[in-house]
Amino acid sequence: MRNQKTLAHPTSLSGIGLHSGQAATITIHPAPADTGVVFYQKTTNTVHSCPAFIKHLRPMDLCTTIGLNGFQIQTVEHVLSALAGLEIDNAYLELDGNEVPAVDGSAAPFVNLIQTVGAVEQDQPRTYLKIVQPLSVGNDSRSLAVYPSALPKISYSIDYPHPLIQNQTYIHDCSIKEFEQNIAGARTFAFRHEVELLWSRGLGMGGSLENTLVLSETGLMNENGFRFHDECVRHKVLDLIGDLSLLGIPVIGHFVAHRAGHSVHAQMVKAILENPEAWILLNSSDEDRSMMVHAGSPFPKPMSEVPQPAYLY
Ligand SMILES: [Zn+2]
C-alpha cells in the first residue's frame, strides 16, 4: 500500500507503428494524482484526448486500440504494460500519430525511457481493487479467470503446435523487479503464414524481424533467436498486464489465463466492472496507514473529472 506515482519529467521516443507502418513520436508527461493514463494529440486548432479506459476500447483483434470522438490510437498495450508494470498511476501520453511506435516489439524501450527520468510519489494514496469472488471469461479452449489472492499474481499458459513453443507456462508475481527483468523484454510473436495474410490485407505494414519474432513452420526467422526460451508466453503476460490496465486501477487477485488474447483480456476487464460484488476497493488511509475500504467508485471517470493541465493547450 503506497501513494500514487507519476514520472519525474517528460520523456520521448520515436519509431514506426507495427500495423500502420507510420512514424510517430510518443512523449510521456507527468500527470496530477487521480488522472490515470490519458492519450492525447495536439493539432493546429485543438487537442484530442482519450483516457486509457475500457469504455473507449475499439474492436480490433490484432492489437489493443482505443478511441474517443474520432481520435483513435492503435497498439496501446505495450506502453500501457510498461506503465502498469512499473506501477506508474498517472501519465499523459502525447502522440503525434495514431499508433504507438512498436520499437523492438516489447515493453523494454518504454521501461528504459521511464527509468531514465525516474518516478515520483504523489500526495494521494493508491487505490486497489481486491478480488473477493472468482470471475471467469472465455470458453474451454481460451479462458481467463481471476481468484482472490493476498498478492497480485498472473499464471499464463499457451499451447501451440510448433516445435519451438508447444506448451509454455509462466507465473509472474507482479513485482516491479520481476517485470523489468523477466517480462518487459519479451517481444511480439507471429507465425509466418499469419504475417503473409496480414500483409495481403494491408495490415502489419510496420512489422519486421526488428520488432516481431516470426516463426516459420519449424523454426524462428530472427537470426539472434529468443531472448528467453519461453519468450512467447512471457509476451502474453506483458499483453495481459497492459490490457488489464484499461480498468484504470490495479487489481489484487490471481489471474489464470489459458490460450487467451486481447479480446479475452478485455472481456475480463468488462466482467470485473459488471460484477461489483466480486471485489472491494482498498487504499492506505493517511491517518493510520491501515487498509480501509474506499467509498465510491473511481470509474468510469467522465472526461470532465480528468485533470487537464494548462500546458496541453
Ligand atoms: Zn503484444
What would you give as the CATH superfamily? lpxc deacetylase, domain 2
Report the count of strand segments.
21
N-to-C CA distance: 34 Å
Number of helical segments with 4 or more residues: 6
Task: Please write the CATH class name.
Answer: Alpha Beta
Shape designation: globular
Mean pLDDT over the full residue set = 89
Query: What share of residues are in beta strands?
Result: 25-35%
Taken together, the total number of domains comes to 1
The main sheet orders its strands as: 2-3-9-4-5
Helix fraction by DSSP (H/I, runs of at least 4): 10-25%
Q: What structural class results from the helix and strand content? A: alpha+beta
Task: Report the C-alpha radius of gyration, rounded.
Answer: 19 Å
Task: Show unreliable segments.
Answer: 285-304, 306-313
* Largest sheet, strands/sense/barrel: 5 strands, mixed
Describe this structure in words.
The protein is of the alpha+beta class. It has a single domain, classed as lpxc deacetylase, domain 1. It is built from six helices and 21 strands. The strands form six sheets. Strands 2-3-9-4-5 form a five-stranded mixed β-sheet, with helices on one face. Strands 12-13-19-14-15 form a five-stranded mixed β-sheet, with helices on one face. A four-stranded mixed β-sheet has the order 18-11-20-21, with no helix packed on it. The longest helix has 14 residues, at 231-244. The site of zinc ion has 5 residues, from helix 1 and helix 5.
Itemize the secondary structure elements and their pairings.
Layout: E1 3-7, E2 11-16, E3 23-30, E4 37-42, E5 47-51, E6 57-58, E7 65-68, E8 71-73, H1 77-85, E9 91-95, H2 108-117, E10 119-125, E11 127-131, E12 135-138, E13 143-147, E14 153-160, E15 166-172, H3 176-183, E16 189-191, H4 192-200, E17 213-215, H5 231-244, E18 251-252, E19 254-258, H6 262-274, E20 279-284, E21 291-293
Parallel strand pairs: 4-9, 11-18, 14-19, 16-17
Antiparallel strand pairs: 1-10, 2-3, 3-9, 4-5, 6-7, 7-8, 11-20, 12-13, 13-19, 14-15, 20-21
Helix pairs in contact: 1-2, 1-5, 5-6
The structure holds zinc ion.
Residues 77-78, 188, 235, 239 line the site of zinc ion.
